[in-house]
Amino acid sequence: MRIIIPALTLCLTRESDMDKLLDQTYPFQLPALGFAYDALEPHFDARTMEIHHSKHHAAYVNNLNAAIEKHPHLHGVPLGDLLRNLPSLPAEIQATVRNNGGGHFNHALFWQLLQPGGPAAPGGELRQAIDAAFGSFGAFQEKFAQAAATRFGSGWAWLAVDAFGRLQVLSTANQDGPQMDGMVPIVGLDVWEHAYYLKFQNRRPEYVQTFWNVLNWDVVNGWFTARR
Ligand code: MN
Are residues 75 and 122 in the same domain? Predict the structure, then answer.
């Protein structure tokens, strides 16, 4: 495992799926979705899921590999380290790694959050932390929806654990994410138009509300617990 947050590292007891995402190295591979493209119907439609995974995410992986391929000293470097050390990369691939490495990580995380069958709300320690940070689960959902709705252009909305162990709602542009700034993302929502336009057209807020129907809180809870 490879984490740069000392306070959290001390408490980590096992390698989580999040660590596996951060520790992967070149050549990067498009991960299997883990469920059928139509498994999230009627909330997220099959056609959007198929294009999103097999075209958009695949392109991020291919572009990232093409950039890293030419730099053998980076072949063994974990994805998490690439994303946290962009200024140390060769100048000509910094933007490519930021956009496509970020895109690969964010989407790999997103698919795991959408695994069907989880509970519709957080429980236990995570629920207590959400209540403490935002007042209530409903207040958190409102704040998250606001972050997703007001992100201008393409980007992501997040719930993340910051370097001091506190929960933060934030949004990022393009394929940036909390993992680039020393935070640990535990919920991420893609608000690029390619994630919703076929079904929701310009109705991003409706897409955000639908997200609550497909977000697997067991996965979120697992990442939260592993990071404390
Ligand atoms: Mn996307």
Answer: no
